[in-house]
Amino acid sequence: MPDSSAPLNSTSALAGLRVLDLSTVLAGPNCARYLADFGADVIKIERPDGGDSLRNMGWRDPVDGEGLWWRLVNRNKRTIALNLKDDTDRDLFLRLIDDADVLVENFRPGVLEKLGFAPEVLHARNPKLIITRVSGFGQDGPYANRPGFASIAEAMSGLASITGVPGGDPMLPPFALTDEVTGLVAAFATMVALWSEQGQVVDVSLLESLFQILGPLMTVWLTRGELQPRMGSLLPYTVPRGVYRCSDGLFVGISTSSDSIAARVVHLLGFDGDDRFTTFAGRIANREIIEAAMESWFAQRTQSEALAIFQEIEAAAGPILSMEDIEKDPHYIAREAVITVEGTPMQGLIARLSATPGAVKWRGRATDADGDAIRKSGWNQ
Question: What is the set of domains in the chain, with CATH numbers?
Answer without folding.
Answer: 18-214+346-377 (3.40.50.10540), 251-319 (no CATH)
